[in-house]
Structure formats: C-alpha cells, structure tokens
Amino acid sequence: xxxPGSSAAKQRTRLRPxxxxxxxxxxxxxxxxxxxxPTQTALYQAVQHHLETFxxxxxxxxxxxxxxxxxxxxxFRGYLECGILAHGFARARCEGCGHQRLIPFSCKSRxxxxxxxxxxxxEVAAHLTDHVLPHVPARQWVxxxxxxxxxxxxxxxxxAGAVLQIFLRAIRATLRRxxxxxxxxxQLGAVSFFHRFGSSLNVHPHxxxxxxxxxxxKADDSEIAxxxxxxxxxxxxxxxxxxxxxxxxxYFRRQGLLDELDAAxxxxxxxxxxxSVDASVRIEAEDRAGIERLVRYCARxxxxxxxxxxxxxTPSLASPExxxxxxxxxxxxHGRTELRLTPLExxxxxxxxxxxxxxxxxxxxxxxxxxxxxxxxxxxxxxPELVSEAPATECDAASPSPSPEPxxxxxxxxxxxxxxxxxxxxxxxxxxxPACGAEMRILAxxxxxxxxxxxxxxxxxPHKPPPLSPARGPPQNDLLTGLLDQTPALDPAEPEPIPxxxxxxxxxxxxxx
Length: 513
Known about the structure:
Low-confidence stretches: 1-29, 386-401, 478-484
Number of strands: 13
Shape: flat
Largest sheet: 5 strands, antiparallel
Mean pLDDT: 81
Strand order of the largest sheet: 8-3-5-4-12
Helix content: 25-40%
Distance between the termini: 105 Å
C-alpha cells in the first residue's frame, strides 16, 4: 500500500477526482474515503423494482421459452448484491486508535455494475501502462463497419474475430511500409478492445486498438530494435480503410453471409461504403499519463452512471410509469442530446451490452501476445533501468550482518490491490483511519448470514438486503380483457327476459316413447 505523503502517492496523476469531503491530515494530499451508496442511484432502483418483470416478459416473448440468457440474469442479480453490507463485508480495524470500518463486497459483473466496470477499466489501464506497453509511441486505431454487417459482429464471436484479424494484417503491412529499414518479418504490437455499444445506449459493434506506432525486428545475433513509423500519412490510413473494406466483404461473401450481388453493391457504394478507419490520436513515448488515459478510453464501460437520472419530483422508480433520462456526452447523428425511456426499456438496452461468458474484453497481438517469442524484450524496451543500491562501506562490512531473510514471492503484475488502485485513481486511501490518520488492517471477511446480521444490528445498520418487487403483468391486458369480454352480466333478482319468438314444443299424438 502507498503510505500518505510518499513520493509515489504525490506523483500519481488522476483523471477524474471523485467529489468527497476534504480532510487535511499532515502529509496526506488526498480526500476522505466515503463508501458509495448504490441503493440511492437510479439504476439500482430500476433493477430492484423491475428485474422480475423484465425476466418474466423475456420468457413470455421467447418462442422457445428460454427467455433472458443465464449470464445476463446472473449479472443483474449480482449487481443487486454489490456494495450491500447485508450480503457480507470485510472488517478493517485501526491499529492505533481501534477505529473499525466495514467494507462491502463487489459483484465483479462484466457489463452492468458501474462501479465494477470502472474498477476493471482503471485496473486494465494501470496494468498495461506499468507492465505491458513499452516506452515507445502508440496510436489509436478505430474500425467501424456498415450497419448491415454489425449484427453478425454482435452475435457471432467467430465473425468478430475474423474481422479483427483482417484489420490487424492491414495495419501491420502499413506500419512496415511506413517504417524505414525494416524487414518483411517485422511484427507489430497491439492491444484490441471490442465494443458492443455506442455513446447513446445503442448497439454499435466496433473496434478500438492501441497499436505501437512502429514495428519490432530482431536478427539472429542482434538485439531487438524498434522502427518507428515516420511516413504514416492520411493517404496510407485511407488505403488501410480501402483494403479492410474489400477483404471484409470478401470474407462475408465466402462465409455465405452476403450474396454476390449484395457484396458487389456494397463495394460500389459512394465514399467509404459505411467503413470507417480513424488513426488520428497518437501518444508520445514518455507521455505515460496520456497512454493511461487512452487505455481507459478504450476499456471504458458501456454507459456512465452520472448521466442517468430519474424524472419527476419523486425519484422513486417503483411505478412502471416512471421515466428516466440518459444524457449523451455529445449530440448524436439525429441531433438528440438525451434519451428518455422507461425502466424496462433501460434494462433491455443494458442487457444487450453484457458480453457472453469466456469472451475476453481485450486481447494482445503481435509481440505483445502471451506466447510471442519477443514479448519479454518488447515489454522491457525503452523502460528506465532500476537504480541499484549503494555499495556497502568498510564500516558496514566490518559490522556483523544479520542472516539474510528470504525474499517474498513477487506479486502478479496483473492484479493490483484494491486500496492501491483507489489511491491511484481517486486520490483517496480507503484503509486510512479517519480518526487518527493511521493505517487500517483488514481482520476478516464475513459472509455467514447470522454473524453479518448480528453485527449490522449492533451497529444499527440495515441487516436485510433491499426487497425485490414481484413481476407485474402487462398493463394493457386488463384493458383488452374488458373490451373483448362480451358476456352479459346476470342478475338473479331480475326476471328472465321474454323471448321474441315462441316455439311449439308439444309432442305429436303418434309419438312413441
């Protein structure tokens, strides 16, 4: 953990400082940590009161009866437990004054929980900046395909991977031509992010790639060398767009997803034909803060919680007639700046962004691939060397030295401690005692329901999770039933009506029983 007042804590830059109460401790430049309150957000109330209705209607509308996918429903129900003390917590205690704090657990969902999505975004950005991306220039490449092809990318992982490989091959060929004195076997280094969403809660599958702006090469007996791309002009980027367009349409035609006439017609469309390649963002080698901001942008969640608000004077969303508004970061193609929708429409939009299980959110390519032969050399390329300790003096050598202790096992660079991650992002130290400023230590992780309830009751905190609202039927069913039911009402007190016609029901004389 980074201690208050250390040089590492002061040098770290933050992108979005979270608003919190400023508390001036000696040597602490940050703010006081305050646990979040998820039950007071509009998203939590919408899921709490309308999840059962959304699941029931999805099962009714599905002709096969499957309804909502299992992983989507699991993420929704896991989000309802995220940050709730009644589902378990960690107990931390200050070693100085004895002050204690309860820290709730997180759900670690992949597409719904804003808190877990933001944590994963910052963790990926910190890991790539500190341990993966070398100190060389990097460029962002963005690929968008026509609307006619986007459903295939959204629903078929195999098609999305094939289009990504076509895009990577075109970028590699362009970087080789733009880098002087390179061989035909030079490799790029890239990290790809596949986005299923747009900025207005719409389904928009596209790709964001962080590509090292150059290629790596290595001869048989020489060290690894990086050749920076100096001649990457807009004409070369437009050439990448043309190559990707032809190869993607050819792949769709060979896979039977497009016929010959449709593929030829899309190839003859004016302009780019719906394909878009952008590579205008470039970060210099020593701008590590810019690299981290770029990776955060590429690994961002599908929506922002601060843009979602409930309409009306009463912010309760228990009623199915309640409305929410989602404000866009910028006007869309239709000029809209916000989107108004019901809670069920919000759940339907968010459910489409949850990725299937066992599908990576980001992937490594080229020299940054996990099994690449040049990965250790490429990752360490350009990094400043560690300063070695000062040699011992004669006095130190004469004094008896204690027996050396075994060095602790190095931690995995892919995992960052929760407290260190919050200190890096928000400039807050969650394990800092608010009473005396000393460091707190986690004592135990409590998940047993009786023990959790007893502690919360003793502290006068809610010991039961928020209740879920039951499923509701469609409101139009009652109206349709009243309009279509033509059965007359019968009153036993009224006499039977006289028929308009009388029929002779007497039997003839010759009728034999």
